[in-house]
Fold this protein.
Amino acid sequence: MQEETNNSQQAISNTNEEWTTVIKPKDKLLSINFKEIWDYRDLLTIFIKRDITTSYKQTILGPLWWIIQPTFTVVMYMVVFGGIAGIPTDGIPQPLFYLGGVCMWQYFADCLNKTSNTFVANAGIFGKVYFPRLIVPIENVVSNLVRFSIQLFLFVAVYVIYAIVGTQACPNWYLLLFPLLVFMMAGLALGFGIIISSMTTKYRDLQILFSFVVSLWMYATPIVYPLSQVAGKVKFGINVYNVMCLNPVTPIIETFKHAALGAGEFIGWGWLAYSFCFMTVLLLLGILVFNRVQKSFMDTV
Amino acid sequence: MPTTIEFENISKQYRLGLVSTRTLNHDLDRWWKVNVLHKEDPYLKIGSENDRASAADSEYVWALKNIDFKVEQGEVVGIIGKNGAGKSTLLKLLSRVTGPTTGTIRAKGRIGSLLEVGTGFHPEMTGRENIYLNGAILGMTKQEINRKLDEIVDFSGCERYIDTPVKRYSSGMTVRLGFAVAAHLDPEILVVDEVLAVGDAEFQKKAIGKMQDVSKGEGRTVLFVSHNMTSVKALCNRGVILQNGMLVDDGDVDTIVTHYLRGDNDVDNYKTWDVPNIKGNGFELLEIGIRRKNGDFTDVMRMDHELELLMRYKLTSVKENFWITLHMKNEQGNKIFSFSGFDRCYEHHHEPGEYEQTCIIPANFLNWGNYAIDFMAFNQINNIELIAAESDLISFSIANRQIAIGGYMGKEPGDVTPVFNFEEKRLK
């Protein structure tokens, strides 16, 4: 009898390695299954395709809306901020200045809004099938990239028109940083988004709070004004410029504007590195929180 | 056979009611006690077992409690139980939609779930696009879907509409398409929850056939949840009964279904009294019961069994004109017919003594379902006198007859299914 139990224990420990799925109440903090996400890469591409093909089904203008939206936003900014408020644009033609900022910001805001809603918006699907939940926010960030590149195309077109007319706005070598800048935007949006979505499963207040925080956040970022406007200003003994740069999106937008338009000064590697580190930490934290919440969110959402 | 799934001490706790302002409070309290003071989780202890009918004395409830069982490769396990017994929770844990509160589930191979077919279908996309979408959600790679596309389209029977947006499909077609995708998932472990309730007879046949192929031919493991005992019996070789979140019975499917049917709805098909309860004016009922002919009172009664109603009673005084009448009632409590041996099989005059009366209900007369019997004893001198009566004295269940795979598994309408003599002649 004794021997038998020993044997069976032996058998259990032997078969332990064969289990392909082990479901436990809580995993270790850092058990993120990246391989699993890779296994589901086809789902990622199909989701992206779905988002793009279905977003403007049964509309007449279709993807043209992706161009119309920023165009009208820029016209509005030109009237309100450039015209009525008279905020300077570092000597750059207003349409170019605003369009650059709007394209970048719109990408960030779109990603943020969509990823922050991951759990609540997908509760139906998540409640029925398992797949790595992280696929959904990643998909949001990637599919928005398509929209972003179409808007960027508009930006380039306007740019070319100005170049033919002969304006001073000229790109410089910092433009090589562009892919990194986009990556950082995506990382920040993803990081913030999944943290918010993890928290909103239980406390919906955050969703309400968050929707207007995003719209206010734009004004804390140099989109409708150049950062050079606040350079050297000191209030309450604090350098306003430095405070502005603490916003991790600021160095990204400023670098882009400087690289593409030659607007203002290069913000400096220090701030860019700060922004990058901020993104990395945020993203890691986000994935940890998300990973923890995804197991039990169906019970609380 | 090696074990494919192992449930080890699985429990799942839910909180009742709305998420009140006290949640944050509870969360902090729990976090403080567990992570800082290293005490036991205070909210795990107070959970009561999951009994829908009784009012809860605690805010927390166990949807599943200490579930421990193993499933071997190739087994088809039917999980049965009343609503709220925890069946769906168990499947949800297995398909990783939500996590357990305690315990571990281990499984070998891919787990495919048919918790709801057509999950993630996008109404604006065509049938073909949705096959890819749904397949990928269920865990197939694009290559796999490419390979099986023709088979899936063929199985669904929606070939003509495959390039039409799914929002134009009828609900039946959507389900067919969804099931077709899921059926071609080829998981090592298949989790099925009542999908057979949908679709027409032809499609049901296809779906059940596919499930059988999966389990018998390819040695895959299937967990099947259903309220339809006929399909459970037809498909499964092992049964598990869940009751109030606990596993109460496990074994061979026929035995388990029998136990389940007997335990269900307070079925009470045999009564006997030491001190007679139903009596009056010199009449005492000693025993009453219904069983299949030559069987035991504990045996399952099937539609194709002859049933025998048995009554034993004592008369302590002379009865000039005595008889017993019974009313058969269906599940809804409607009386379907009245029956009595009066005037046909016994003398009206009764001397004191002990009597036994039996009545045979022919096979294939009552439809499957639950029935109850009202009891009345009469004596007539000048006026008819009701000397003893009891409503719903005994109740019993009749199970469906054995049905060939793929046959119609629903219930025919009506309470009786008499067998009449039909004749057919070819005239020309």
Observations:
- The CA atoms of residues 201 and 297 of chain A lie 6 Å apart.
- Chain A has one domain: 44-300.
- Residues 269-300 of chain A form the longest helix (32 residues).
- Chain A touches chain B at residues 15, 18-26, 40, 42-43, 45-47, 50, 53-54, 57-58, 125-131, 202-203, 295-296, 298-300 (CB under 8 Å).
